[in-house]
Structure formats: C-alpha cells, structure tokens
Design goal:
Blueprint (H helix, E strand, L loop, with lengths): L2 E3 L8 H16 L7 E4 L1 H10 L3 H10 L5 H16 L5 H18 L6 E7 L15 E5 L2 H13 L4 H9 L9 E7 L5 E6 L9 E8 L3 H5 L5 E6 L4 E6 L5 E5 L5 E5 L12 H18 L3 E8 L2 E9 L8 H6 L8 E4 L1 E4 L2 E9 L13 E4 L7 H6 L2 E4 L7 H9 L3 E3 L4 H4 L5 E5 L4 E4 L10 H7 L8 E6 L5 H6 L5 E5 H6 L5 H6 L3 H19 L4 E4 L5 H4 L20 H7 L1 H16 L5 E5 L5 H13 L9 E6 L2 H5 L1 H7 L3 E4 L1 H9 L17 H17 L2 E4 L7 H10 L3 E4 L4 H24 L1
Parallel strand pairs: 16-17, 17-18, 18-19, 22-23, 22-29, 23-24, 24-25, 25-26, 26-27, 27-28
Antiparallel strand pairs: 1-2, 2-5, 3-4, 3-5, 6-7, 6-12, 7-8, 8-9, 10-11, 12-13, 14-21, 15-19, 16-20, 20-21
Helix pairs in contact: 4-6, 5-6, 18-21, 20-21, 21-22, 27-28
Length: 760
C-alpha cells in the first residue's frame, strides 16, 4: 500500500501510517470532525530508500557519528537530508500520490487545494515516547509537484539532528524507524491551539486548553504565550481564564503561504475562546478520551466557527507526575522573586543562568545549568538534557519546552515575557516549575533533591484493598512498577500479539506456531519481571474483527456491522482454539521458567460453559488451572454478573470487572456515539447494582474481585467499591497514586463508621 485514506486506518496502524496518521484515521472513524486527507505509508518511504539505493549510504553515515559532538551530528544530518531530497521519486510512487491528491481536491471541490504535509514516524506518539517536533511540518502546500516535493522533504526530516539524537538516546534502531507522511486539507483557522484532557503536570481531571489567533503553529512552537483555560470535566464549569498578550500569529499571505505576522493591537489582549467554545472543546475532549480510554493531548482549530480536531495522541508524561514532591521541596521564603511565568514542569531547580539566542550557543550549557531562552526548539533537546531547569520568554504549558521538560523530568517555567532580558548570564537562580516562579540566588535545597528523592522519604500509603496497574505494552511495565502498584490487574494481550502486524492465524497456518508463542512469552516476561513476585493477570486475546482486518493475513476477516458486539473475546477463541492454545503454551513456558506470579483471565464470557471449555484447553497444554496457575475471568457482560455464582461453581480464582463494556452493554449506549454518549455513565444504578452483586458474591465465595475499567479511577465510585468489599482496584499508571489515596480514605471512613456505630 503506497497511499491510504484516513477512513481506511485506525490507531493500530502505526506501522503503516505512523503515530500521527494512525490517530487521524482513528479520529475519522470515530466520527470526530477531522479535515480529510491521506497518508503516504511507511512502506512507501522504505521502498523509496531501498529501490533508489541510498539506504546503505545513509546507515553508513549514521554508524560513524558521535551524537554528543554537536557539529559532527549537524553535519551528518545535513549530508543525509541532502541525499534524500536530491534523489528522484520513482514514477510508480509519484503516480499514487498524484491520484490521491487529485481525489482529495475533487472531494473538497477545490482545484489544487491547500494541504498540510506532516511527518508521521512509526515510533512517534507511542505511549512511552514523545517525538515532539522532531520531524517537519509544511503548511499551505498546493499542486501535485509541490506535494510530492514536500513529501520527500518530510522523509528527509526523519534525519534531522534532533531526531537522530533522540533515537540514539532512547535506543530506537534507525533502520527500524520508518516514516509515513500525512497529507491533509488545510484548516484555515481563525483561532487554534492545544487541549490536554487532564492537566499534564498534575494529572488533575480537568480539560487544560490553550489558544491563540490564527494557525496553531504559534502555540505548539511556543512563538506566542497563549490564553490559558481550565474546565472541570465533571460539570463543564470554567475554573480558570488567563488572557495573555498574544504578540504574533500565523496566517496566510496573498499567495496562500503561511507567514508569521504581528497580531493587530486591538486583538493582542482580547480573549480568544468564548465560554461556549470552551464547553464545545471540553465535550470533544471527553469523547476522545472515552474513545481511547486514556488521557489525550490534542490539537484543535476553529474555522469560521466550526471546530476541527487536527491531531490526538496519548499523553506520555503522566507516569512521571509526583505531586507529593513539590509539597515538600520548597524555596526559602526570603528569596526574591525576579521573574514570573507559567509552571510547566514541576520541581525545584537551582543553577547558573546560560542565555541562549541561537543553536550555535548550545555548547555553553553544562551539566546543571539553567537554560534561559526565548523558546526552545527541537534542536535544543541535547542541551536541555544537560540543564537542570528551563526558563523561556514565550510559550504555554503545551508548547515544545513544556512537553519536552515534562518528558525529561526537568523543572520548567515558560511564558515569562522577559527572562532573557531580566536574568543575567552566569548568575545563580532557583526556579519553581510548579508555581512558575524564578528566585534570585541559589537555593539551599540541593539540586538533586528533586521529586524522585523526596518521594523516597515519604512513608508509603498502606491499604488492605490492593491497588494495581493496567498495562498494555511491555515498554510501560517499568514505569508502572515504579508506582508501587500491587501488581497488574489487566495485562492486555492485543499489543503483545499484534505488534508484529501479522494475524495470529497466519502464524499457525504457516507452521510458525513457535514464533507466535515466543512473541507472546517474551513480551509477557518483561512485565512479569518488572513486577515479580507481585501478580500479573494476563487477559487472553480480545481484539475485534476490525482490528484483525488490517493485519497481514487478515483479509479473510468477516465484515461485522458492530464488531464490539461481534466475534471477539473467548467466544472467538473457542471457535479458533489453536490461537488460545498458543497463548496458554506461552504462559506455560514462563511458568516452567519459574514465573509463578502470572494469572490467566478470559474476556467477554456470557456462559459458564465457556469458562469450562477454556480451562480444559489450558489443561490440554499441560498448564493446570488453580494448581499451576490462577485462572479467572472478566465480567463485562450483564449475563456474567447475573450468573456469577454459576461461574464460581465451575471454579475461578478471581474476576475483574471491565466496567467500560459492562456499562455500554447494560445501558445500550455506545460511548463513542456523539448522539448518545451523554447517557453513558458507570454510576447508573443498574451498572452499580451489577458491580455490587458481583463483588459481594465473590467475597462470599472467597474469590478475589478486582476492577480494571475507567470507573476504577473515579474517586466516588472507588469509595463504593471498597465499601462493597472489592479485593483490588486496577487503574491506568498515571492514576495509581491518586487511587491509592482514595482507597485509603475509603478504608479509614469504613473503620470510623464502624467505630461510631459501636459507640451508639
């Protein structure tokens, strides 16, 4: 596939369309308003590099460079980019791109329509990696020849110095990181910006929105300090409005080219977003977070009053949030505040000021210095890593400096307006990245007394109810374990099995069963290792048919009208037992190697016979349920909740409530359907009665009961779960700390209530 339309791809297609392209396809298929477009696939880039004969030359250059030598790195990057942009695009590739662009023009009824051309690397926007700004974006491109030319420039941008450095630092193999290119109808925005569906610094459940005039490039790049808004997602109450002096904006010149201009004087301090627009954005953010099942970082634009979503990706920095650290790490009150801005990345940093106006000055940043600049750029990342803190003149909490600082765990203050003019070179300062303040002089607090160190000195919260983590990818296991979670309440199989891009049935049909077993075992082992000896509950495959279709070997998948209600979960695996047996063999392999902390749970069961048959298959491969390994099930269907005692009679060690599906199936509400999503709530009495019934029946029988759906992160629901007698609560990694606090409070309240009753 050289070219695919947004409608043909989804979030599982990162290998085809890169992170940006896959998410645009996912948003399009979810009914989110996205400007139409297509993706020049990663396969096309790979074919171009190999068929043209330049791939070996590029890899040879990369193998020779020292990435810590800035000049050598820059020189190698320029040489590689020159090779790519000067190599002709083969006719077979250019024909496909031409046809796709012409079809887009016809669709929007514009001749040579303006498009945005964005890079979409296959390793970007992954749950544990943010590639913010490392490859290029080109706006207002029109005409077939220009589109092809800028696609090639996007390919070349995979080898920007900053991107090469980042891949080396994070152990990404250059040869395995490919690049797709997104070609999308331009949204000629009147106002645009960024929205996080939770606060990216604290994890607080608010919509954090930043906006400015014109195209969103001004906000993302940090060229402007945008308006900042906070909206409580529970009731859409606007809890903060900060209007900034917006000096510049990106707009179009007479030829349609994107240019940076001064904002008209009467608009500089005018509020960008109305209350109605903020609520519309917040509702859109809630839909997107519900669809993905995790907090999201989005880019948006209003064009003539119509809202468009331009990008969405999981927030990559929440696992590092430690709110307790900033409560203890204080700056002495006698310190003089010399600069104020926005707290963009929490923590206290103290060091010597080095002011940077140009990338040629980066070499003067030494370990522990405070980098002060107008705004960071992707080229500054190597120097940012050496700094102990970052201060910028411009930007908001969603700009490049903020995103990268949070990822690196470096305290950061942005949007000061005058730091480069006010602060003096080689003078000591201290910054508070939570409060947005810069103090005169070096602090008495040692620079290394940051969040991680302080956190170690805080007594851990002990709860009887266990607090576990949900894990989707093995790469996330280390961070999840670092939260102190009591185990993994849900290890999703889908990412472990489908990352190869090959249908599991194809492995078996081609006699490659051992390869499939080893793939599963190797990935599960990473998680089991990270948490050992704490329990890890492995959920067997539950991928709907629409996720299987895109895989190599998935062409025979049925086309289901509603895959969520279709051939998935244990019902499918019992129809295709060889796949399920491969999973059981993988777990047995790990058990034989001494991993005794694994449990198996089957998904989407509606009848106890399915549990009985699954256990028999497990026994067939030599893994004995309840003896060698704990065996349990998900409760996602009302039928399972209403007959849980029958499952207990068949024999289970544990159950886990999947409240996302349980709510949808109980209320007949598709939470991703904008017409009915407002009716979706886990707190509906019917849903809560099913949850309560399951927990209490399990408690009576001595069966462990957990919850792994979104409801497990909602404090008021968690309090009820604890009162019902739930054994454990499993949440997303970023919520573990808060859930543990909520559980502790709920347990203490139960003890207090019981004590009061005894005194009556």
């Amino acid at each position: 596939m050289y070219v695919v339309k947004f409608e043909e791809i989804g979030k599982s297609d990162i290998g085809i369309a890169g992170g940006k392209g896959a998410n645009l396809g996912e948003l399009t298929q979810a009914g989110i308003p996205v400007p139409p477009g297509f993706v020049v696939t990663a396969e096309t880039y790979e074919k171009f590099m190999i068929d043209s004969g330049i791939n070996d030359a590029v890899m040879e250059i990369l193998n020779k460079i020292d990435i810590n030598d800035t000049k050598e790195l820059q020189s190698a990057a320029e040489e590689i980019k020159s090779i790519i942009v000067n190599t002709p695009v083969p006719d077979d590739i250019s024909i496909y791109i031409t046809e796709a662009y012409n079809q887009l023009c016809q669709r929007v009824d514009e001749e040579d329509t303006d498009v945005a051309i964005r890079s979409s690397a296959t390793a970007e926007d992954l749950p544990d990696a943010s590639f913010a700004g490392q490859q290029d974006t080109f706006l207002h491109v029109s005409g077939v020849e220009n589109v092809i030319d800028y696609v090639r420039k996007c390919w070349a941008s995979l080898f920007e110095a900053r991107a090469i450095f980042y891949r080396e630092e994070n152990d990404f193999d250059h040869s395995k990181v490919l690049i797709a290119v997104v070609v999308q109808k331009m949204a000629n925005a009147d106002k645009a910006g960024v929205m996080f569906t939770v606060n990216p610094s604290t994890g607080e459940g608010i919509a954090l929105i930043e906006g400015s005039w014109g195209l969103g490039e001004a906000v993302v790049s940090g060229d402007v300090t945008p308006d900042n808004y906070a909206v409580d997602k529970k009731d859409n109450k606007i809890i903060n409005v900060t209007i900034s002096d917006k000096k510049v904006m990106y707009t179009n010149d007479e030829e349609g080219t994107s240019i940076k201009v001064d904002v008209p004087e009467d608009m500089r301090n005018e509020r960008v977003l109305s209350d109605e627009e903020l609520i519309e954005l917040t509702e859109m953010g809630k839909r997107i977070q519900a669809h993905y099942g995790e907090p999201m970082d989005t880019e948006w634009a209003f064009e003539n009053g119509t809202l468009f979503l331009l990008q969405a990706r999981p927030i990559t920095t929440l696992d590092d949030v430690d709110n307790s650290a900033d409560d203890d790490a204080e700056v002495s009150e006698d310190k003089n505040v010399i600069v104020k801005g926005l707290g963009a990345s929490p923590g206290i940093a103290s060091g010597i000021v080095k002011i940077i106006f140009d990338v040629d000055e980066l070499d003067k940043i030494e370990d522990g210095d405070i980098m002060v600049t107008t705004m960071t750029t992707p080229d500054m990342v190597p120097a940012m890593r050496r700094a102990s803190g970052i201060i910028t003149d411009e930007g908001g909490v969603t700009c490049h400096a903020s995103i990268i600082s949070r990822e690196l765990g470096i305290p950061c203050v942005v949007g000061t307006g005058s730091a480069t003019a006010t602060l003096k070179e080689n003078v000591g300062v201290t910054l508070d990245g939570k409060k947005g303040l810069v103090f005169e002089g070096l602090t008495e607090t040692k620079p290394e007394a940051t969040a991680d160190v302080v956190a170690e000195s805080v007594a851990p919260i002990i709860t009887v109810t266990e607090v576990k983590a949900n894990v989707s990818m093995p790469e996330a296991a280390t961070k999840a374990a670092a939260t102190g979670a009591d185990g993994v309440g849900l290890l999703r199989t889908e990412h472990l099995m489908l990352t190869a891009g090959v249908h599991p049935g194809k492995f078996i049909a081609e006699g490659r069963e051992d390869e499939l077993i080893n793939t599963i075992a190797e990935n599960v082992m990473i998680v089991a290792d990270a948490f050992y000896p704490k329990p890890v509950w492995y959920r067997t495959l539950d991928a709907p048919t629409d996720e299987f279709i895109a895989l190599d070997g998935g062409e025979n998948e049925p086309r289901e009208h509603n895959p969520m209600l279709g051939w998935r979960g244990i019902r499918r695996e019992l129809d295709q037992p060889e796949i399920l047996k491969c999973e059981f063999k993988a777990i047995k392999k790990l058990y034989d190697q001494g991993y005794t902390n694994l449990g198996i749970m089957i998904p989407l069961s509606q009848h106890p016979d399915e549990l009985r048959k699954a256990k028999a298959l497990c026994e067939e491969v030599g893994l004995r349920p309840h003896k060698d390994i704990d065996f349990g099930m998900m409760v996602e269907i009302p039928a399972a909740a209403l007959t849980i005692e029958d499952y207990i009679d068949v024999g289970i060690d544990f159950v886990s409530l999947g409240t996302n599906d349980l709510t949808q199936y109980t209320l007949a509400v598709d939470r991703n359907n904008e017409f009915v999503a407002k009716h979706y709530t886990e707190e509906h009495p019917a849903v809560m009665k099913l949850i309560e019934r399951t927990i209490k029946k399990c408690a009576e029988a001595g069966v462990k009961c957990s919850i792994c759906g979104q409801a497990g992160s909602v404090p008021r629901i968690v309090e009820k779960l604890v009162s019902y007698g739930i054994s454990s609560v499993s949440s997303n990694t970023d919520a573990v700390a808060e859930v543990r606090k909520t559980v502790a409070r709920a347990e203490q309240k139960l003890i207090l209530d019981a004590a009061r009753k005894r005194l009556e």
